[in-house]
What does this fold into?
Amino acid sequence: AVNASRCMYCGNCYTMCPAMPLASGEGDGIVLMVGGKVSNRISMPKFSKVVVAYIPNEPPRWPTLTKMIKHIVEVYAANAKKYERLGEWAERIGWEKFFELCDLEFSHHCIDDFRDPAYYTWRQSTQFKFTKHIEA
Ligand code: SF4
It folds into this structure.
């Protein structure tokens, strides 16, 4: 059971117990995020970015969501370089251009303002390079 007076809507209980009835008939929706990755290949791991802040929940086939994803994938496939990941492509052309090409509306919900102390102080990647040690 959710203690409503203490709940801060983090959603963690849902990941632990997917059967929890957290869905809201009125407010239910989908956030579409793109460009994140865990891989160290070419560039550091990245967080995904919100590109559509709200898409109605339309089971069982989610037509609005699937249409948007299909369009993004088609634009990406037509414009990115071979082996370029979506996030890397968007960064190369600029996110403004990404929104324009994918016919997505930019809103204040899409602004990437994630910053915490780790952003400046912690090593964020396992990428490294070997350097040659020279004896004095
Ligand atoms: S885990 Fe998060 S969303 Fe779930 S009840 Fe606790 S504070 Fe609320």
